[in-house]
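Q: For a teaching handout, I want to show students what a protein-ligand complex looks like in C-alpha cell form. Below are the inputs, and the small molecule is manganese (II) ion. Please produce the holo structure.
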Amino acid sequence: MKNENLVGGLGKKEFIEQVVANNPRADTALIGRAYDFAMAAHAGQKRMSGDEYFEHVLNVAYMLAGMHMDSETIAAALLHDVIEDTKTTKERLKREFGSAVASIVEGVTKKIALKTTREDRAENIRKVLLATIKDIRVILVKLADRLHNMRTLKYLPQEQQREIAKETLEIYVPVAYKLGMYRVKSELEDLCLRFLEPGIYQELKTRIAKKKEEREKEVKRVVASVKRLLDENSIPAAVLGRAKNFYGIYKKMLAKKIPFEEVRDLSAIRVITTSTENCYRALNAIHSKWTPILNRFDDYIANPKPNMYQSLHTEVLFEGKPVEVQIRTLEMHHMAEEGIAAHWRYKKTEKDRQFDRKIAWLKQVLEWRSSESAKDFVESLKVDMFKDEIYVLTPKGDPVHLPEKATPIDFGYAVHTEIGNHCKAAKVNGSIVPLDYELNPGDVVEIITSKDAKPSRQWLKFVKTNFAREKIRRALGISGEELGKKEWEILTPAEVIEKLDTKGTKPSLLQMPKCCYLKYGEPVWGYKSKDGHLIVHHNICENLKTLPQHRLMKLGWKEEKKERTSLMIELTDRVGILADLLNRLTAEMVNVESVNTKTAGNRLYVNFEVTGISDTDELVKKLKAIRNVVGVKVA
Ligand code: MN
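A: Here is the structure, written as C-alpha cells, with manganese (II) ion included.
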C-alpha cells in the first residue's frame, strides 16, 4: 500500500519541477497561478487528518502529473475544491484560468447539502458522469480525488468510511476499469476491501506477508528462467514479477469458494517486449518449454478487451506449480496501467478513433437515462457496469459494444433507434438468424429493416441491454414502472426456484451476475431489478450488501436426489475439450463433484463424478454430440 500522501509540504518550485519532469512542455505559468490561488483560497482549512486542506489538492494534482496529464488538468486538480469549499465562483475561475479549467472544476463540484442523502449522492455521480461526456478530464480529476480520499479515509467516522468505500466499489472502481485504468482500479479495490471487510483485509495482509519471502524466491526463479529462455531466443524483453492485488485474491477465494491456502497461482510474471511480433515469439518460446494449462490462454492482442486492454495471458506449469504470465509491448503496458489517461495523451494521433470509441459506452449509457431520477439512474448504472462485454461488427466492419449474449435487436438499437424500431429480420455472418439469437464476439451482424416493421412486446423478453428495452417500451408506449411490476408478479419465489432447477435454458428473467459462483444447495438471494429481472446472488456476495433491502428475497432450491453417478467419457484430445464438457454439464445443471483423467494411446478418458442428472439418456446424447467425444459410459 502506498503512503497516503505522495507529497507533503511540497513547495511551488519543487512541485512545478516535478510537473515539468513528466511533461517538459507544461504551462508552468498557469500551474503556478493555480497553485497560489488554491493555497490562498484554502488557507486555514484543515482536513480530518489534521493536514492542511491544500495538501489534499496538491496530492491530487501530483497524481495527475504522474500520469503525464496536460497543464489544464493539473491546474484544475489544484483548483478542484475551490468552488465547493471556498467562496470562489465559476465565473471567477473562468476569468482567471480559462473556460476549460473552470468547466473541469465545475464538473467535479458536488451539490452542497447540510446532510448528504442517498439521492444527493446519486445526483452528484450523475453530474460528474454527464460532465465527463463533454470533457473526459473531469473523470480523471474525480478518480484522482477519490483515490486520495480513500487513502486518507481512516480519519473519517466509521459510518462514513463504509458509505464512501461502498460508493467507490460500486461506481468508481467499475468506471476506472471501463476506462482501462488498472493501476487506479486495483488500488481503489484494495482500499475498499480494507474499509468494507477489515477482518478479511488484515488476514490477507498477514498471510501474504508470511508467505512473502517464499513466494518472492519462487518468483525470482521463474523470472530468471524466463529471462534466460528469451535471451536464448534473442527476444529482447524485461521480465518482472508481479504482485496480485488483495482484492483480486479475495475475489478468487469467493468465486472458487476456497480458503487462502488453496489460492495457488499467487505467482505471476510479466514480460514486456518491443513489438507485437516479439510478444507471440515469447509466448511460443514459453509454451514450448513449459506445459501450458488447458484453457488458460487468452489473446487480448488480437481481441482487445472492450476497454482496449491488450496483452497475451497464459498460465504454465513451472516445476509443477501454475504461474500466470502476461506478455505485452511497452506501449500496451502504459495503456494497461493508465488506460484512458494514456489514450488521451496519444490523442490527435491514429488512436483518436479508438479514444472516441472508448468513451462511447458512457455516452450511450448516459444519453437515454438523462430523464430517469438520479437514484434509478445509479441503480441501473451499477447493473450495466458489471456486465461483461463483447464486440460485434457491422457489415462495414465497425465494432459495436454489447453485453454478453446480446441479441440482434440489442445490436439494432445500439446502432440507431430507427434501425431497432424497424427491424424485420437479422443476418449473422451472412445467414438469417432468429431475432433472439445470442451473438458471439466478432459476429458480423446485419439488420434488415422495413418501413412497416414495428417493435413487439415479445422483444422485451429477450433483449439484454437496458437501452434497447427502454426504447422498445417507449415505442410501445409503456412506462418502465408498469412493466417491471407486471413481469415481476408472474414469478413467485417457488416458480423461480423451479426455473433455477430446470435443466436446459434459463429463463431470460433470471440473471447470474459475474460476481457470484452459484452452486446447488448453497444459500442464494434474488434481487428484483427495476426492469423485472431477478438477479441471483450468493449469500456471501459483497454486492448483496450494497443493494436495497426491500428488493431482496431469499430463494431456495428445489429438492433433488443426491445420487452420485460416474460418467466415463472417452475422447480424442483437442484444445478446449475439457472446458466444453464442463460447460455442457453446467448448462444441464449437473454438479461435478470430481474429475479424473487418464490417457491410453491416443485416447483420453475423463471420469466425472456427478450428481443431479435429471435425464441420463438425454445427457449422454448431448455429451456425445460434442466434437471428439468417442463414447460415454454411465455407471
Ligand atoms: Mn477533493
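A: Two things your students might notice: The first helix runs from residue 12 to 22. Residues 67 and 160 are 29 Å apart (CA to CA).
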